[in-house]
Design a protein that fits this description.
mainly alpha, flat, single chain, Transposase_8, Transposase, 0% strand
Length: 37
């Protein structure tokens, strides 16, 4: 099993959803199909 890697723009979008749009980490991680950590 290989690890997935995400580019910088993907990470920025994910963080903006949490900080600026007030989504929870759980909601964003579920929608983006990534682990909450």
């Amino acid at each position: 099993m290989s690890r997935r890697s995400f580019d910088k723009s993907f990470k920025i979008v994910a963080v903006k959803l949490i900080i600026e749009e007030s989504f929870s980490v759980k909601e964003v991680s579920s929608q983006l199909d990534v682990h909450a950590k």
